[in-house]
Structure formats: C-alpha cells, structure tokens
Amino acid sequence: MREMQYSIKDLEKLSSIKAHTIRIWEKRYQIIKPDRTETNIRFYDDEDLKHLLNISVLVQNGIKISHIAKLNSNEIKEKAFFLLQNNNDSDNQIKNLILSMVEINEAKFEKTFSKSILNIGFEKTMIQLIYPFLKQIGIMWQTGSINPAQEHFISGLIRQKLIVSIDGLQTIPQKNSKRFILFLPEGEIHELGLLFYYYLLKSRGHEVLYLGQSTPVNSVEQSCQIWAADYILLFAITSFSGISINKYLQDLSGKFISKKILVAGNQVEEISVTLLSNIQTFGYASEFISFIDSLNQ
Question: pLDDT, tens digit, for every residue of 258-282?
C-alpha cells in the first residue's frame, strides 16, 4: 500500500484542529515535523495523521498541549487509547474509526462499533456515529487523502455489520406493513445507505425485496410484475449515468406511474422541487424514519 500524503488542510478537516494551531504547535513544541516538497510546501504522512488524531483526543479531553508535548509518541498513543475506550463522546469515537481505517485495524473498529451498540443500540450507532464517519471518509476521498484499500476495508466492515443485523431481524410482516423494492441505479455501487434503509424497514415489520447495486430499470419493472410493491426506493449517491438525476427520475416516474418512488442519497440536493407527484425525497435518515413510522399508525 502506498504511503499517503496529507496537506495541512487535510489534517485540519480530519482532526478538527485549525491549520493555524497546527503550525503553532509545530514551531513551539515540534509535535509534528512535516516533510516538504521541492517547492517547499508542507506535507504529512500516515504516522503524522495518527499522531495528530491522538493528540486531538487528549486536547479534547482537557489535557494541555504544553503537557502533551512532554510525552513521547507511545505515551500519547496509550493515553488516547485509554480515553477513547472510556469515552462515549461521538467526536472521539469518530476519530477512533478514522484511526482504525488509516491503520487498517479491524480490532479497533470492532471495539468502537460494539461499544457504541451496547450504549445506544444499532440504529442510533448508524445515525450518530457511522453516518458522520462516512461523511469524513467522503472528505478524505475528495482530497485524495484516503486510498482505495482503506476505503474498501472500512466499507466492507460496515457492510458486514449491516447484513448481519438485517439477517437477525424477524421476517414476519406486521399489521399495516407495506412492500418495498430497493435498488441502486445502473452504475451506482455505494450500497451502505440502501442497506441501512433495508434494516430500518425490516425492523418495523415491512416487507423488502432487495435488488442491490447497479440495477437496470427493466429489472425493477420485471420485479414489480412478479412481486407487487407499494413503494420503490432507490439511493443516488454519485452521478451514476450520463443523464441528470432529474431526467432519470422523470423517466422512472413514467414507468411506475402508479407507484410511489422514494429517493435518498447525496444526489437528492440536485433534484428539482417541481418533480412529478409520485416522487418523494429524503435528505436525512431521520426523515425516512418518520415516514415509515407513520405507515404503521
């Protein structure tokens, strides 16, 4: 795996420590010693990021930087580890997840994830911990400060947790239950959000037909002919095709004129508010939860 390089702005976004503060700490305490490019621009490596994340945990827990500067890297790491294992603060736990991804450390991920489930349950763990963490991953991906191996590693672990949790739910439909077909459009492969919505639906007694990644529209049509659904739910995370999300949904709406089409994901922000009446969008998981909870009333 190639060694990652981070700018000072990357460190600011990932550690929540201002770039100006990092520079002061470098000069006054030498807590990090960045390398420089041929054009004299600072850059940092994985070890620098991990070291700064550990320092940010100590600072966030009230330890003065002047005291931290007197500790060696192993002492800082040990103190941060202790605080992370004994602190339920979501910011600290997100930092721990980032560390587990950077280090490709499954045990660290398991401890953080399992502890959160014990404290607040699976659903709140996904909303309060995993969703903000995935947002951080998105920032890292956009800035080039995460490589595919790290992203696939952590996404795979989260996917496993979702599938196990879905399988562990009862499959007996409840009173007033509805039928949902779930899919990702062709070219769309990011299924963590769709899997979580699958969990939300199944945990509330609704029936779900999960078609998964990169599903052609004609496959959705064939499924509807065999398995009568009340709703069609899709996630649009990326620009998955050559046409706009609005054009895609207008075409989809015409094919399923008698169905309610539910849309979630990052692309929701691009959807026109004047879209057809059988399209309903969800910007947040909390909105979707309110919607499906209302179906059971």
Answer: 899 999 988 887 777 566 788 999 9
Show the tokens assigned to 287: 């909105």
Half-sphere exposure for 177 (CA within 13 Å, toward CB):
16
Q: Which two tokens stand for residue 29?
A: 């305490």
User: Does the CA dihedral 237-242-244-250 come out positive or negative?
Assistant: negative
Give 210's contacts (C-beta < 8 A, 6+ positions apart). 182, 183, 194, 198
CA distances to 66, 191, 285 from 69, in Å: 5, 43, 41
Q: Which CATH number fits domain 179-295: 3.40.50.2000, 3.40.1350.10, 3.40.50.300, 3.40.50.280?
A: 3.40.50.280
| Cβ contact 59:91 at 8 Å | no
Residue-range domain boundaries for the chain: 8-166, 179-295
Angle at which helices 148-167 and 90-103 pack, to 10 degrees?
Answer: 120
pTM: 0.77
**CATH number corresponding to 8-166:** 1.10.1660.10
**Same fold? 8-166, 179-295:** no
d(CA 284, CA 148): 26
Give pLDDT tens digits for 19-47.
899 989 988 888 888 888 778 777 888 88
State how far the Cα of 237 lies from the Cα of 243, in Å rounded to an integer. Answer: 14
